[in-house]
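Note to self: user wants both folds in one dump. Writing first protein now.
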Amino acid sequence: MALFEPLTLTGSLVKLQPLRVRHLPELQDAVRDGELWRLWYTQIPSPLTMELEIRRRLELQDHGRMLPFTVRRLSDNTVLGMTSFCHIDEAAPRVEIGYTWNRASAQGTGTNPDSKLQLMGHAFETLGCCAVEFRTDRLNRQSRDAIERLGARQDGVLRRHTKMPDGRIRDTVVYSVLDSEWPDVKARLRKRVDKERRP
């Protein structure tokens, strides 16, 4: 049996549920919050391309290359965005958490740290991963700061690595957290999530 099978992960602030085509209207609404597809330094689907992106992720799942989730806030059942396990290496095992975006109004509310807490906890504690990886555009300072706040360490830079929608070839910064580092990272994430849960 494959390690990376569709499942639901529930935290304190969010629930990560298997991505489905029926989530399309809610995901279109989420991406309109902040018009995230207009950000030049990232690749986020627009309302018009959202269905294609959902189906692309599900096709990758069918081939064992991705495990995509819809992120839903527990307090009001609002869909916030998407995330996934990707670059899956079941032999190690090792995985990347990526292709993540969240509606603008939810950013800074603890929902993303809670999402990471659930994903990394599953990767390390259930699947026995030796490392969890993160990748982002070298120019995306917001994403790099967020990854570094997790406690991930930079492994290196893949120069001229990925073509962006505007034709630019980006440099990709690669970070990781090792299994031996997970307890400290977990404690840091838990502290951030608990802070947001306080009345």
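First done. Writing the second protein, which came from a different request thread.
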Amino acid sequence: MSDITTLNGGSCIAFKGKNCVAIACDLRLGNQALTVACNRDKVFKITDKTYLGMTGLASDVDTLRSAFRYRLNMYRMKEEREIEPETFAHLVSSTLYEKRFGPYFIEPIIAGLNSNNEPFIAAADLIGCLNFAKDFVVTGTASDKLFGMAEGLWEPDLGPEELFESISQALLGALERDALSGWGAIVRVITPDKVIERTLQSRQD
């Protein structure tokens, strides 16, 4: 295997909208071409308005999820407030960079609304180099297909429903062209007053 990050498969994408953001992932957990499970959610709640998506080696995803939970609890106790998505992105970056000589094989996406309800999305590579995007970010085995779909479907200042439709079509279109991702998807649209979560059906082959 040339790339250990593709061992378990999976893809994730985030779109920025008008006072809202959307983050979506597929549900497949595999061992190369063998599908192990089809209920593996790769997006995790950080705060009420911030979510983290992680694709890559499944064991490293679980390890980092525990590490971030610990560091977030420490932040809440010390600062006595919820972490902003911009701050959390730098926390993710520094956590990954600490292990740069033996990195975690994951690619994270951060999506959320800050205290002013301004949308924020960012992605990082496996040693924590951040990419702050104005439109969309993608990670996972279907990245090249997701880039093509997102460039065609993303538009500025989309509302929650239009954003949901765009990110859903982009993700489903890419999953049909990638053998290591798929088996359904979960989309979350984060707005100032609620989080809209919907499960999508996709091809099961």
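Dump finished. Worth passing along: The helical segments are 58-79, 85-98, 143-153, 160-175.
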